[in-house]
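Anyone? Bumping this.
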Amino acid sequence: MSPDLWSLYALMLKSRLFEEATARLWHEGLISGEMHLGTGEEAIIAGVVSHLKDGDAMALDHRGTAAMLMRGVEPVPLLREFLGYKDGLCGGMGGHMHLFSKEHLAASSGIVGAEGPAAAGFALAAQYSRPGSIAVAFFGDGAMNQGMLLESMNLAAVWKLPVLFVCKDDGWGITTKSEVSTGGDLNERARGLGVPAVDVDGCDVSNVWEISHAAIERVRSGERPIFLHARCVHFEGHFLGFQPIRIVREPLKEMPKVAIGLTKSILRLDGAAISERIAGLKNVMSSVISTLRDPRRDPANDPLPHTRATLHSDQVRLKELEDHLEKDINNVLTTVLGEMPS
Amino acid sequence: MKTMFFTQAADDALAQAMADDPRIVVFGEDIPLVRRDLLVRFGPKRVRGTPISESAFLGAGVAAAMAGLRPVVEMYMVDFFGVCVDALLNHAAKTEAFSGGKWTVPMVVRAPCGGGYGDGGQHEQSLWGWLAHIPGLTVVVPSTPADAGGLMLASLRHDGPVILLEHKLLSESWLEFLGSGARKTVSFDIPAAGAKGEVPAKWEPLPLGEAVLRREGRDILIVSVGVSVHRALDAAGILEAEGISAGVLDLRTVSPLDKKALCKAVEQTGRLLVVDEDYESFGLSGELSAVVLEAGLSCKYARVCTQTTIPYNRDLEDQILPNVHRICASARLLMK
């Protein structure tokens, strides 16, 4: 089977436009607190979620917007949830980190790694009540250092639970590079727990779709859980207003705030030897330097243009689709902002 | 007198202690960014980042403390103790008792806590009552920069495990990191006197378990911790204009509790109003009533606490967290 790239591109673009609109509302101050966008990981979500059927469950992390949208949650109540409105998806009680849709069997958590146990439990219920249904867990590579996720992988292996564990690996855990926080190899780690691992290119939706297709078939058959390891980038870093990205984007504004404290720390009498202080300074600056060189800044890692290029041959249809989606999201915004909650 | 922001004061006292005591090490998630000034001053051997593995690094902090270090372990938020509470509940809190008093755990756990900036019910809890419920843990909740520094120093010198909770509305750095993201388009109800204030030239430890009377009052005693102390002080100002004289006692540490100060102040007013941002049931507010009853005091009692999961909606959130309006309404009822 081959993927329908038109529908996958539509899913991704709709999600991208929706999240870009979300970002604008956040910058305008209409959304409070943190806001974790999934821009950059759309190919992974689309390539997996497009295989899901009624009865399948999703355990989502704090970055669950794209998965909710692509699974069919209505955009208006979703965005109204971000605004905290009473008629939002969760009555304004959860916000973007805690999205729940019972009818889609989709639940999110702001606790890193909590998707593991949740997916295992959804899959256990499926084993009893909905044979042939599966559960998908979406999480970042940072979560792979969280005990409960690894325990869930083992549990899923020994109980042969129908779980697809999807690791969206952007190489970062919040502001920390994974290379300094993660030992060994993630695929080997999964295999060591009895969960077969497979790599996919998270920037290539057709690759994700094809490999997920085979993986989900196996998971659905009840044979065993599978670990899907997808590399991706997050254009906005961990969340909007992410400090390392702010520093890179607006160095003249942001650097002085940081530099004063660091300079004082170098000059203070009491403290470590100068070599240790320099090592400390290198440590601090490495996250900024990594951000400067970051694949996040390379448009080649954006899954959308990648897919779009494959659809170029039919310019008319492409324009029609893009215009339609843009209009669609504009309508969503108008509706969301136009009516205050009762 | 010099002034400092809240977290700046806590960090400054920590730096003073680190300069004096090479056994103090600091670790937690994103610490190279969050405590970058300490990292540059004391080097990466003493200040380091961790994986997102709270059970491992908090548990490691316990044993490192047992083996001679004085670790400062940082949790991203008090809510995330949910992931690793075993290290506190069954280990940090038990070692001294299990060893017949021969082995202690001199560890400080720092965690941002509290709500009021729209992050939802999994990131805005207080939970000090839940932690203080466990014998063997000291739980500190400062409400001013001077207390943040003085209690930090006391916590570092204490030989048992201390959890020091920093309210995010008071913490200039946490609020920017998690609340505003450097936006100018959002604002929060930040208590000015708690976010920035006078600090001593050199830090001296403040006694753990000693409350402070922030305001004298004849009619009602309001007892609180953290941000709610400032809400209570604002309410007391309003009540004064109505002819109700309300005192405000800042507990500063939830455990050990300053029972003496509490009972003395309750005795003088005969009315106790607890303002607690933590959950109402089975927590600090009920504990205070028990302490007063056990002391044989009779008083009128009311409480203003958080009763439910904290809503994401900003308006609902402001209603559910203790606010000046609710405090005044409760105080007026107590006067009837």
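Late reply, but here is one note on the structure posted above: Chain A has two domains: 5-235+302-338, 243-296.
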